[in-house]
Design a protein that fits this description.
eleven-stranded antiparallel β-sheet; 182 residues; mainly beta
């Protein structure tokens, strides 16, 4: 199945009218087990994401189980800002070099487990863990390798950052963090 969607958005600063988003997919299976052999989305700015995997018990969301793998082509700062604007936010992002994102998401929709890698000339990030949507508790392991903080955020910051972070606790608003971090 191939679809092309035309958008007509009021935000003329970010988009011109009649922009195109392309969606191509190959699915098989049933509502008991839906196999996503290929899901490819290409935005008007050239950013692309490919997804494959499976979703079990499709009609039982949020108890459905999934096992999905994804990856993007290198995405620039402007492409990322344009995509985020589609979801209603006008983000302020650091000045990063194009990055490729890959990873997997599994388990149930209420308790997703994830493994995400971001590779860029601005630094490399790894993020693994899980999140409980009912309780807001999370286990998170993050690694940052040679992240060019000064280049992205300005002269007042250190030049590079390499770090590991472990978090086990509740995630809410920034003023509601509770748990243990190292």
């Amino acid at each position: 199945m191939d679809l092309t969607a035309m958008t007509t958005l009021d935000n003329k600063e970010t988009f011109s009218s009649n922009e195109t988003v392309s969606l191509s997919t190959r699915l098989s299976g049933s509502l008991d087990l839906l196999n996503i052999e290929k899901l490819n989305i290409i935005t008007f700015s050239g950013a692309a994401i490919d997804v494959s995997g499976s979703i079990a018990d499709v009609t039982k969301i949020p108890d459905s189980r999934c096992k999905l793998a994804f990856h993007t082509n290198p995405v620039s700062r402007n492409q990322a800002m344009n995509m985020m604007t589609l979801f209603g936010s006008v983000p302020v992002l650091p000045d990063f070099k194009p990055c490729a994102i890959s990873g997997s998401i599994g388990n149930t929709f209420n308790y997703p487990e994830f493994d995400i890698q971001i590779i860029s000339a601005s630094g490399n990030f790894g993020l693994t863990g899980n999140y409980d949507l009912k309780t807001n508790f999370s286990k998170l392991n993050a690694s940052l390798n040679d992240v060019k903080i000064r280049e992205m955020f300005g002269e007042q910051y250190p030049e590079n950052l390499t770090a590991n972070l472990t978090w086990d606790g509740r995630l809410g608003a920034l003023n509601e963090l509770s748990g243990e971090g190292m």
